[in-house]
TrEMBL record:
It is an enzyme of class 3 (hydrolase). This is dTTP/UTP pyrophosphatase. InterPro entries: ITPase-like_fam (IPR029001), Maf-like (IPR003697). One of its GO terms (cellular component) is cytoplasm. It comes from the Bacteria. Pfam families: Maf. Nucleoside triphosphate pyrophosphatase that hydrolyzes dTTP and UTP. May have a dual role in cell division arrest and in preventing the incorporation of modified nucleotides into cellular nucleic acids. It catalyses: UTP + H2O = UMP + diphosphate + H(+); dTTP + H2O = dTMP + diphosphate + H(+). It comes from Qipengyuania oceanensis.
Length: 192
């Protein structure tokens, strides 16, 4: 049986960087085209898992290919904080998250060579320090939070504003590597 090749169903450069940390280089990267609108009453964990699965299934899989997709969802209680579209979103999200714990749910899905979908979910707890107006203004001005779930990037400047993390750091960045490795191995992808 030939060694499978990996297709990354993502437009996120962070996911490629994270995969490189475990020696995985996708043979192909393709951005999935799905509707990411949460369903009415959908819980964050269910939402993150569903999006990862739908992204993995949305990208065509050729012979000998397996498809990997992920989704990272920031949740404050039952409320989903999507990707920040602009600086106003970043400001609003950081004001909500200031001094409070929130959850980061990271879904991962792999479609193996036989078309079987394998899934895992990582859940982490993150807490920002109580942020001053000046700190929020400076972070908004950096532009770093735009396009990020919850309006922040823990691997960037926001890391200096976070005083507590429990769970998967890589899951908060965008792809929980422990769960990803388990799924890739179970799909017969060669890992060291």
């Amino acid at each position: 049986m030939a060694t499978p090749t990996l297709v990354l169903a993502s437009s996120s450069p962070r996911r490629r960087e994270l995969l490189a940390q475990i020696g995985v280089e996708p043979a192909r990267v393709q951005s999935p085209d799905i509707d990411e609108t949460p369903h009415d009453g959908e819980l964050p964990r269910v939402y993150a898992a569903r999006l990862a699965r739908e992204k993995a299934l949305a990208v065509p899989r050729g012979t000998g290919e397996i498809v990997l997709a992920g989704d990272t969802t920031v949740a404050l209680g039952r409320r989903i904080l999507n990707q920040a579209a602009d600086g106003d979103d970043v400001r609003r999200f950081l004001a909500l998250l200031s001094g409070r714990r929130h959850r980061v749910c990271s879904g991962v899905a792999v479609v193996d060579g036989d078309g079987k979908v394998r899934e895992k979910l990582s859940e982490s707890i993150v807490r920002f320090k109580r942020l001053s107006g000046e700190e929020i203004d400076a972070y908004v001005a950096s532009g770093e939070g735009i396009g990020k779930a919850g309006g922040y990037a823990i691997q960037g400047r926001a890391g200096a504003l976070i005083d507590f993390v429990s769970g998967s750091y890589t899951g908060v960045v965008g792809l929980p590597l422990y769960e990803t490795r388990i799924l890739l191995k179970s799909a017969a992808y060669p890992l060291g």
